[in-house]
From TrEMBL:
Domain Formamidopyrimidine-DNA glycosylase catalytic: 2-109
Protein name: Putative formamidopyrimidine-DNA glycosylase
Naturally occurring in which organism (per UniProt): Actinacidiphila reveromycinica
Keyword set includes Lipid biosynthesis: no
InterPro entries, sorted: FPG_cat, FPG_N, H2TH_FPG, Ribosomal_uS13-like_H2TH, Znf_DNA_glyclase/AP_lyase, Znf_FPG/IleRS
Residue spans crossing the bilayer: none
Amino acid sequence: MPELPEVEALRWFLDEHLVGREIERVHPLAVSALKTYRPGVADLEGRTFDAVARYGKFLDLGAGDLHLVMHLARAGWVRWNDRMPEAPPRPGKSPLALRVRLADPAGVGFDVTEAGTQKRLAVYVVHDPAEVPGVARLGPDPLAPDFTPEVFSGLLAGERRQVKGMLRDQSVIAGIGNAYSDEILHAAKMSPYKLAAKLSGQEAALLYDMIGSTLRDAVERSRGLPLRDLKAEKKSGLRVHGRKGEPCPVCGDTIREVSFSDSALDYCPTCQTGGKPLADRRLSRLLK
């Protein structure tokens, strides 16, 4: 799933390649991805992209008083094309969900795709990004200048959930998903099951620092890469997430996994849980 660093890299790329270019045609291929119908995607045609912004994991492509807002969900992506086929795309079993063709130079544009059978990609055409429910609910951006230690402490106050769940909640902090929450907690040497409200002042300060440094490092690794390389860069840069059975790069212990119905978390017992394995939450609580 694209998270804040990958979406920020997409923003950089699209800002460089789209701003100032006129939209010739927009082809919607996956009706399930369209979450708004008035204005429609055809209303973008003839307009010029003038800004590209990011809100958490949402991409916002501005064109005058309209915004094409996208959430790539678990398996969505953006593919740039320097030469598109002349024939309009046809709906079918391909992963293509939306095609945007630019007027100049002819044939240049981008595709929005979604792999797999679970269709969660979301595309909106709105006058204001705040009209998108997911954008309106977002918490503060962890890379914004106003995301201070004091703001973070306020978010922790009274938070009764485990810290892993809190980090992934987009209404608390925008942009962190399953992968980077694992990476942040590993860097902070903190159990994902630890209750957020019970963090000491020192633990909260460390977690705050690791949120910033982990995300900024990932953003910098992605800067300037072609879109086709961003997914591979994310995977290669992860230290624990998706690395079940591999040695921890810090201590050498075996990275373990806890599976849930639709996701999994990865962690190092030595670095994060005092050497004790976490029990599968479907069966029992954290071993103490």
